[in-house]
Design brief:
The complex is a heterodimer of chains A (263) and B (240).
Chain A (H helix, E strand, L loop, with lengths): L1 H15 L2 H20 L4 H29 L1 H8 L5 H30 L5 H31 L3 H29 L6 H10 L1 H12 L7 H12 L1 H28 L3
Chain B lengths: L1 E10 L2 E11 L4 E5 L6 H9 L6 E6 L2 E2 L10 E4 L11 H11 L13 H5 L15 H13 L5 E5 L7 H16 L3 E5 L3 H7 L2 E6 L2 E7 H8 L4 H13 L1
Helix pairs in contact in B: 7-8
Classes of the chains: A mainly alpha (263), B alpha/beta (240).
């Protein structure tokens, strides 16, 4: 536990001073400010922001995460030559990246939200949901990146796989679901669709946000089914559990590979 | 100090170590030499626990080196490539490694900072590591290996990237560690350097030890005057 805390602390110090992280925080700060300033401080601005969040966070967490692991390879070897356990070291390296990434995003969105006076009432809850889901996606895709970079020896292949995962989950998955939905439009496919949404963390976050913003009416009957599911506390629990699984499964696979890996 | 018995390691179709046996004698400097791909780095990494052997055993003072990381408290490692987190300073890096070693101190109750002083690193320790030259980073690497007064030092191509002055300081440090009863394992491509600091030589080829003994014995065995010629002789003879 001591090693985990120490490694996390020093990794965070390193990551926080990185220009990339500062640029990442500034990006969300400017994007949120611009949307609230020019789009009006209402639900539409948050909806636009959530599209940015759903696209950018998985990409940045995946690319930043894989590059981070590959670049730290020699340093990881140096740390492994010290009297430390591999499991704790992996945890420290992961948290040392995931915590600053999450904080940069959260601060970038939260500051303009507070400044523009959107932080209270129903709109405030929506903004908080958006921040929470963004943090969850950061944890999910950082874990995926770590798992990938530990398992794939070759840097360019690992980075390629990271981008392929992003493309698959953020772009292709929706297309596929849409295709299936239109092919089987005559059948009652709301429940399988629900399953498909829960199985992809990006879609899960999107559905939760859309329901939160109360635009589910746009989705017709499907939207109604989703609303009745996610609107209840049971649906929320399923969403939280699914996201938690999306963090723990890649992290667990990553730890296992890290413990067996030949450096 | 270190006993290696029938060590094997295979990467894909390649047998990197093919039943390697070796005794590293305590209180001596052992040079591990061999052509590229002979298994030197893999051997070092298995001793450090960075790589796992397929079969065979590595014993440190009779105790098997395994998953328990505690034995590494007695080991100092200087890797060949000095790459550190870019935005940490040298001082932070040293504190980090010290904290990971549970505040371990040497017998005199403080850290061995001799190399920091002799390398004149003090002025550089407050700068981010990314701004340091390759040679300066390599000096930081050397400091970390010696800092905790370890019983076993493992130095992988220690003088690569160091200027002649720093290189000489490091070699003196190795000699004084040996005089203090430490065991040192060093790999190098510079035979003249090994001739200066090594007592024993382990010559590796195709994942096996082809010669293990003192530098003097190797020269006698090959009837050569210098270590470089002796190793060259071994390589051509085993190739024939």
């Amino acid at each position: 536990m001591r090693t985990l805390v120490k490694v996390t602390g020093y990794q965070m110090r390193d990551v926080v001073r990185s220009r990339w992280l500062i640029a990442y925080a500034l990006f969300f700060l400017l994007a949120t400010d611009a949307l609230l300033r020019f789009g009006g401080a209402d639900v539409k601005a948050l909806l636009s922001l959530s599209n940015v969040v759903l696209l950018v966070i998985p990409l940045v967490a995946l690319v930043f995460g894989t590059m981070h692991v590959y670049n730290a390879r020699e340093f990881t070897e140096l740390l492994l030559a010290q009297p430390v356990g591999r499991r704790e070291l992996f945890g420290g390296l992961y948290l040392g990246l995931a915590i600053p990434l999450s904080a940069a995003f959260a601060a970038g969105v939260a500051i303009p939200v507070v400044v523009h006076g959107v932080a209270s009432g129903e709109l405030g809850v929506s903004a908080a949901t958006l921040v929470a889901l963004g943090v969850a996606l950061t944890l999910v895709f950082s874990a995926t990146a770590f798992c990938l970079a530990v398992r794939v020896q070759d840097k360019s292949r690992g980075l390629g796989a990271a981008i392929a995962i992003w493309l698959g989950l953020s772009v292709l998955y929706d297309g596929l679901v849409l295709l299936l939905a239109s092919l089987f439009a005559d059948y009652p496919i709301e429940r399988p669709l629900l399953g498909a949404m829960v199985a992809n963390p990006v879609d899960l976050a999107r559905v939760v946000l859309l329901l939160r913003f109360d635009v589910s009416a746009l989705m017709g009957y499907t939207g109604a089914v989703f609303k009745s599911f996610f609107g209840g506390s049971g649906g929320l629990a399923v969403a939280v559990c699914a996201l938690a699984l999306w963090v723990t499964v890649p992290a667990w696979l990553g730890v296992r590979a890290f413990q067996r890996k030949d450096f | 100090m270190i006993t290696i018995h029938q060590l094997t390691k295979r990467f894909g179709a390649l047998d990197v170590l093919a039943g390697l046996d070796l005794d590293i004698r305590p209180g001596r400097v052992t040079g591990v030499v061999g052509p590229n791909g002979a298994g030197k780095t893999t051997l070092i990494k298995i001793i450090l626990g960075l790589t796992r052997a397929d079969s065979g055993r590595v014993l440190m003072d009779g105790e098997p080196v395994g998953d328990d990381a505690a034995y590494r408290k007695r080991v100092g490692y200087m890797p060949q490539i000095a790459r550190f987190p870019e935005n940490l300073t040298g001082a932070e890096l040293i504190t980090m490694v010290e904290e990971l070693r549970s505040g371990q101190r040497d017998a005199a109750g403080k850290r061995d900072r001799e190399l920091i002083e002799r390398f004149r690193l003090d002025a550089h320790l407050d700068k981010p590591l990314r701004t340091l030259s390759g040679g300066t980073r390599q000096k930081v690497n050397a400091v970390l290996a010696f800092l905790f007064d370890p019983d076993l030092l493992i130095l992988d191509e220690p003088t690569s990237g160091l200027d002649p002055v720093a290189s000489a300081i490091l070699k003196e440090k190795v000699a004084s560690a040996r005089a203090a009863g430490k065991t040192v394992i060093v790999t190098s491509h510079v035979m003249a350097e090994l001739e200066e600091i090594a007592d024993d030589i382990a010559f590796l080829l195709d994942g096996r030890v082809r010669f293990a003994g003192s530098v003097h014995d190797l020269k006698l065995h090959t009837r050569q005057l210098s270590l470089e010629r002796a190793i060259a002789h071994m390589m051509t003879r085993t190739a024939a």
